[in-house]
Amino acid sequence: MRTSESLASVLICAFVGAALLGAAPAHAFDGTPSPKQITPGEAFRQGARSMRSGDARAAFDAFLDAARQGHTASAWRVGRMLRDGASGVERDELQAFHWFSQIVERHADDDPTSPTAQITSRAFVELGTIRLAGIPGSEINRDYASAWRMFYHAASVFRDQEAQYQLGRMYLKGQGIERSPRLAAQWLRNAAEKGHRAATATLGELMFVGAEGMPRRPVDGLAMLTVARDGADPERDAWIIEAFDDAFTLATDDERIAAAREARRHMRPAASTPQPTLPTRIP
Predict the structure, then answer these.
(1) Where does residue 103 rank: exposed (0-12), middle (13-18), buried (19+ CB within 10 A)?
(2) Pick from 279, 277, 206, 278: which is nearest to 243 by CA?
(3) Contacts 24+ apart (CB under 8 A), 103-111
(4) Residue 211, strand partner residues
(5) pTM of the predicted model, to two decimals?
(6) CA–centroid distance for 160 within its chain
């Protein structure tokens, strides 16, 4: 195991341990024991079947049974269902925080190629996201330093695109760290190269407008916004569509033509270009 990862795990375990001291204990959601004990794998499969049939409550109970037996994928499902407030399951962000913390505590030092790596990475991101805002009425306060640690570990060790995007946003806004548009651009690019739409749009905005230490690059910025705009959902991605419209309105005719050409090159079918690069790298 690399030294940097071991050091990260020490910091992470300290954070998780402190958080779990105040988190609710890991009892069943309704406070009652399972009617019968089945293996974690069987419980997980039962939960998956219930999800497919549309019975979220039965799925939650099955996943919870498996999670209490240490099944990592089930712990992730339980955490997400509690955080989202699935049908028949009351939303409980503090309990969700608890389950995500358990995953991180158990798997912080797992190899990035392990079967649990993707789940572990997502748990880091969930913890970071919760720490950005805190949980009102609980002991989980807003903590930018903890959020940065969660995102940084997932972004650097697991190469998680959402974590890279969130790090870019933190550097862009200066949330608990020194504002750095250049570092923001680097992390946003890492995520954008993996196809992260929001990171592509955010980087495009940054390049189109420019920032301290970063001159405007309107053609590259508009090209990236065009890529992000392609296929954007009118409701979920309304801000991306608005950002593209604003940039397109401000751009000159020559910039629009050049940006469209660059965007078409990027959006060519995968058969002709398996992994096209994004417009001109950050200087």
Answers:
(1) buried
(2) 206
(3) 103/72, 103/75, 103/76, 103/79, 104/12, 104/16, 104/150, 105/12, 105/13, 105/16, 105/17, 105/20, 106/70, 106/72, 107/72, 108/8, 108/9, 108/12, 108/13, 108/153, 109/1, 109/5, 109/6, 109/9
(4) 214
(5) 0.82
(6) 7
Q: Cα separation of 242 and 149, whole Å?
A: 32
HEC assignment per residue over 181-247: HHHHHHHHHHHHCCCCHHHHHHHHHHHHHCECCECCCHHHHHHHHHHHHCCCCCCCCHHHHHHHHHH
- Using CB atoms within 10 Å of the CB of residue 60, give its burial: 0 to 12 exposed, 13 to 18 middle, 19+ buried: buried
- For the record, the structure tokens of 110 come out as 């797992």
pLDDT above 70: residue 104: yes
Domain extents in the chain: 1-112
Among 73-77, 164-168, 235-239, 268-272, which stretch is predicted with the lowest mean pLDDT?
A: 268-272
The pair of three-digit structure tokens given for residue 261, joined into one six-digit string: 């050409």
Q: Do 63 and 55 meet the contact criterion of CB atoms below 8 Å apart? A: no
Q: Compute the distance between CA of residue 75 and CA of residue 103 in angstroms, rounded to an integer.
A: 7
Task: Give the separation between CA 80 and CA 96, rounded to whole angstroms.
Answer: 7
Q: HEC string of 83-149?
A: HHCCCCCCCCHHHHHHHHHHHHHHHCCCCCCCCCHHHHHHHHHHHHHHHHHCCCCCCCCCCHHHHHH
- Asked if residue 31 has pLDDT above 50, the reply is no
* Confidence (pLDDT) at 281: 45
pLDDT tens digits, residue range 165-174?
A: 999 999 999 9
* Tokens representing residue 248 in the block: 């397109």
pLDDT tens-digit map of 243-260: 999 999 999 999 999 999
